[in-house]
Amino acid sequence: MKKILITIDGPAGAGKTTVSRMLADRLGIQYVDTGALYRTVAYEAAQRQIRSDDDDALEKLCGDLNIQFISGENGLRIASNGIDISDYIRTPEITRAASAVSARPVVREFLLGLQRRMGKQRSTVFEGRDMGTVVFPDADVKFFLCADSRLRAVRRYNEIKSNTVITLKEVERDICRRDRDDSNRKLAPLKPAQDAIVIDSTDLTVEQVVERMASFIKPD
């Protein structure tokens, strides 16, 4: 297969991570979870007690970060300045903080460059919220994955319930709040690209979603 760039955007809990990994595995190409990049910045900001609206401090923080994806026995992990922080960036607190820092231009500029450098290296499936609209407007294939908010809350709750005391109702409230914040922000709002293929995963299995996506990707 020739070098190909695929983007999968969509709201929290739509199944983007699982689908993106499976599609990348099926195609034999790299997978990048861009949400983990924003979570990493949010985590490091929290560690340094930097407010999400302190652009000067965030800019300095970004300049000091070396973020890398690493493959291990437990799949793809993320390291910040050489330390694996994968287990610390999925809490509800970091999720909310990531949504806040993702709206800051200094953070987006830093990660925009990082993501585009990754995209130049080899065929990749990029998962995120503005991959097809802002980061890679010329991507070869663009998908927008959505699902019912209640179902998305259940999916997210099942992912995190072993590490938190948060309730399903609280997860659903957080998801609805994040949908509203991400969709209404002025900078890179969450929305399908004009040429994106929209897939509603509410009544589909993961395998069916991947199969549908794969049908739009033509081998060289």
Question: What layout of secondary structure does this protein have?
Answer:
Blueprint: E1 5-9, H1 16-27, E2 30-33, H2 34-47, H3 55-64, E3 67-72, E4 75-80, E5 83-84, H4 92-101, H5 105-121, E6 124-128, H6 131-135, E7 141-146, H7 149-160, H8 168-184, E8 197-200, H9 206-214
Parallel strand pairs: 1-6, 1-7, 2-6, 7-8
Antiparallel strand pairs: 3-4, 4-5
Helix pairs in contact: 1-9, 2-4, 3-5, 7-8
Task: Give a brief description.
The chain has 220 residues and is of the alpha/beta class. Helices cover 48% and strands 17% of the residues. The chain has one domain (5-62, 90-210): Rossmann fold (3-Layer(aba) Sandwich), CATH 3.40.50.
Detailed description of the structure:
The chain is an alpha/beta fold. It has one domain (about 5-60, about 90-210): P-loop containing nucleotide triphosphate hydrolases (Rossmann fold), CATH 3.40.50.300. The protein is about 50% helix and about 15% strand. Strand 3 and strand 4 (about 75-80) form a beta hairpin. It is globular, with a radius of gyration of 17 Å.
CATH class: Alpha Beta
Low-confidence segments, given as residue ranges, are: none
Write out the CATH superfamily name.
P-loop containing nucleotide triphosphate hydrolases
Number of helical stretches of at least 4 residues: 9
Q: What is the straight-line distance between the termini?
A: 5 Å
What structural class do the secondary elements suggest?
A: alpha/beta
How many domains, in number, for the residues? Answer: 1
Instruction: Categorize the overall geometry.
Output: globular
Number of strands: 8
Q: How much helicity do the residues have? A: 40-55%
Overall pLDDT score: 90
Strand arrangement, major sheet: 2-6-1-7-8
* Rg over CA atoms: 17 Å
